[in-house]
Structures are given as structure tokens and as C-alpha cells.
Amino acid sequence: MNDLRERLAAARLYLVCGAEPDEFLHAALRGGVDIVQQRVKDADDSFILAAAARFRAVCDQHRALFILNDRPDLAAQAGADGVHVGQDDMSVDAARQLVGPSRLIGLSTHTREQVDAAAADPEVDYTGVGPVFATPTKPGRPAVGFELVAYAAAHAVKPWFAIGGLDVAGARAVSGAGATRVAVVRALTEAADPERAAQSLLAALEVPVGST
């Protein structure tokens, strides 16, 4: 797994989804998704691990990174390349103790202070910055708008992904605010053609692969 951070640095499009079928995953990955996060809430471990086995196999076929949401304790069993935690979840230090030194750890950030703290934390590999727009996937979480995106563009020193209610127009807008990477949910899970939708999101970013 020594190339995980190099692949992370080159990633631009990050998909967050539930236990979607293989056909959807293949289509999104053909369209250019670089990272897939399995986000399954309120399910037992056996369901999460069964879905993870599918996600791992599909991601391997496309050489995409596979991230598990919220469950550092299952990372090894799930064959995940890393885990993503929120500000109210397990601490990054505790997650690192569970996943070991090689796997990636992502952290959600919602304020300037959290962006700065993540930049200074050696255990954080990447961050999500948002939600840019209000989104039903994060009920009750206020939108941060473009100001925090611009702040992250100026101050973040690790890969970061603008996230939260982004579609093609939103991807174009956050690109204008300095984002070179985006994470999406509904823009792909609700797309009639996930492959073409992924291609459109990448085109909206219009940045070189590997830009931080």
C-alpha cells in the first residue's frame, strides 16, 4: 500500500455512496471516479463487510481507492485503503491506532479552525471541506458556502475535496473558488448515466491531475 498517498494526490473525483450495485460502481469508475467511499449507516458488521468485499473487487478492477466510512475497526477486514471520520466520530489518533500507519485517514472539516488543525495533524491524509451547499445527506449541517473553499485553497497543505450538494454547476463554481477536487453523492447516485455524469464533473473542474 506504499503508493496509496501518491494515488490520493492524483485523485480528483471522490464518490460517497451506500451499498450500490456493482453495475453502478463500474459505470461511475469508468467515468473517472478515483476514490469510492462506502458509507453505510445503521447496518450490522456482516452487511458492511459483504458490501465492502464487492466494493473492493470493483475498485481493484479500475485501480481506484476504496475508503470505508466511520469504521476504522473494520478497515482491515474490509480490505479498505483507508477510512473517513467526521469531527464527531472517533478521533484521528484513535483511528490511526486501529488502521495502522499505511492506510489513509480522511477527516471532514467545516470551519477555518478545523481546516488548520487538519493541516497540522500528521495523521490526517486528506480532508473534506463543506458542505458547500445544504444537502440531505448531512441533515442539520449548515452550508459553508464558497468562503471556506477559498480558505482551504489558500491554506490546506494536503489533498482536500470540496463536498456538499455539488453537481456539475457546483463543481464549476468551487473550481472557481480554488478547489481542484470534489466529492459527490447524489450527482452520481441519482444520475441516469453515472459514467457520463462523472465525466461531466471532471470536465467542470478543468484542472490538471495531481494538483493540490
Mean pLDDT: 94
Indicate the CATH class.
Answer: Alpha Beta
- pLDDT below 50 for ≥5 consecutive residues: which ranges? 208-212
Counting DSSP E segments of at least 2 residues, the number of strands comes to 8
CATH superfamily: Aldolase class I
Spatial order of the strands in the main sheet? 1-2-3-4-5-6-7-8
Report the order of strands and helices: HEHEHEHEHEHEHEHEHH
CATH topology: TIM Barrel
Q: What amount of the residues lies in strands? A: 15-25%
Largest sheet: 8 strands, parallel, barrel
- Describe the global form: globular
Q: How many separate structural domains?
A: 1
Structure summarized in a few sentences:
This protein is α/β, with parallel strands linked by helices and 212 residues long. 43% of the residues lie in helices and 17% in strands.
